[in-house]
Design brief:
- The chain is mainly alpha-helical.
- It has helices spanning 3-24, 27-30, 59-65, 68-72, 94-102, 111-119, 133-145.
- The chain contains seven helices and no strands.
- The chain starts with a helix and ends with a helix.
Length: 147
């Protein structure tokens, strides 16, 4: 065997080993998730669309599972970390709210957000662009349906 064939074999074996290592240490197996903002909004490794018994989660359950209650409160009344979500329907329709949840930084302009930045300095709305759009739709419907 030539030296080049030996080196190619070593390279292929190392690549396969690293691929297996990555597979078994991914979030699915380690139970980790993204860090998110202060641990909020991080991705739990379990499927957030379904509860343990396989039934679909509601918008309220997803709102809690995604960590929204940590900043916006269990009743969406707002906290020291995030604003109240009451009356959001006058600013957003379903599609705009989903777009905001997917990429808040790209959708934070206008007087409302200037005031938000003053009221919550250093506060960041985490991006949920990596989440299932159906889940984001359920959360948007939940937020928009509350008064």
């Amino acid at each position: 065997m030539s030296k080049s064939i030996i080196w190619v074999g070593i390279f292929v074996a190392a690549f396969a080993g690293l691929l297996l290592l990555q597979h078994f240490t991914s979030d699915e197996y380690s139970g980790g998730g993204e860090a998110g903002y202060g641990g909020m909004g991080g991705g739990a490794s379990e499927n957030t669309t379904q509860a343990g018994g396989g039934e679909e989660l509601s918008g309220a359950q997803l709102f809690a599972n995604f960590g929204c209650v940590n900043c916006h409160g269990a009743e969406m009344q707002g906290t020291k970390m995030g604003p109240s979500l009451a009356g959001v329907a006058k600013y957003y329709n379903r599609e705009k709210l989903i777009a905001y949840l997917r990429n808040p930084e790209a959708n934070m302009s206008g007087d409302r957000f200037d005031q938000y930045k003053k009221d919550f300095p250093g506060g960041l709305m985490p991006s949920y662009g990596n989440r299932d759009p159906k889940d984001l739709g359920k959360i948007a419907d939940f937020i928009l349906s509350s008064k």
